[in-house]
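[Automated response] Your request has been received and processed.

Submitted sequence:
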Amino acid sequence: MKSGFYTIITAQFFSSLADNALLVAAIAMLIQLDGPEWMTPLLKFVFVISYVLLAGAVGAFADSMPKGRVMFITNLVKILGCGMLFFYDVLTPPQVPEYVMILLAYAVVGLGAAAYSPAKYGILTELLPADQLVIANGWIEGLTVLSVVLGTLLGGILISPMVATHLLAIDLPHLETGIETPAEAAVALTSVLYLAAALVNLFIPDTGARYARQYSSLPSLLREFSRCFHTLWDDRLGQISLATTTLFWGAGATLQFIVLKWAEVHLGMPLEKATILQGTTAIGIAIGAVMAARWVPLERSTRVLPIGIVMGVAVVLMTQVTWLPMVYVLLIVIGAMAGFFVVPMNALLQHRGHVLLSAGSSIAVQNFNENLSILVMLGIYAALLHANLHINTVILLFGCFVSATMYLVWRRHQHNLTRP
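Generated structure:
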């Protein structure tokens, strides 16, 4: 691997670490304000909506300048969102519930993330040859998952009563911090992580890749995005990998909240302990990602599709386990299967996108589909909570949906193999 690759994954690690710690802090803020229960999954909803609404623009933005500079700018946007979250009580207009400002602030962080993603993945295809993309994605997904584990655990630790008491007791001479709650302390420390990511971005090398066509008007951006969208979905391999990653990210985001609710109802765990279960799933994803990077070359990436079917069945088993050691084992297994089948699919999609389109444009199409899936699935999950459906029923529906959808994708791939 080229040295610049390790700079990229270091910056990604710090940024993703902050994303996951901030989500826990934002959930704690909603609980602190007694926000409606169905409001919690909407945090992720507002975070990813920028990926969908700005999909036609962020790809062109990522290709308009060296991608290290794009990543630096977008981390500054995330820091702005942290500031809004920290001062939510001051910024909230009269007669508006304070939890609305928390959603808005988290949406700004999502705006930065949406513009960050095409640069983060697009630079891989500029820097590395195709035969290193699976390995690179194994590194990216493995470290991203590690950051999910550590970030989620960090958020849980920062809002836990024992640690929060010590943080709030710190007296900095001549400095009025305004930190009054554990969640605010967590947000402040998360801002430091985003700043560290931004500083590392300054050392990412310029690959020299330049894209001649830039689209300045909204209609031309939308036309170009539509062309890229149809190009990937019409490609025999592109459509399979895109369908798989679209399902994975929608299901993964929903499972993140399902695990928290399941831990509360099924296992009697508070939020700061339930975050450990999220980390357990993420450990499994890291294991699966490393295994895929080691054993699945790009040309055989579609052979992992049946694993997605089995993963849905494993999710349904969550309703049957209460013994904590078995809970951990099951979540690690589910995560490992997810990591093993998504890493090759992600690499295949990046390769097809780079061959057919530009780096930024292909990742923007991928982000649009994946995050539209997140919006739809989180919206359905919020509606199920609003309807007071038991979490075990939700898990049963969720697992069956994942297995059925992956079966249809696998059948579509078998059909594509017979096409001229």
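Summary generated for your ticket: The domain at 3-205+219-417 is CATH 1.20.1250.20 (Growth Hormone; Chain: A;). The mean pLDDT is 83.
If you did not submit this request, please reply to this message.
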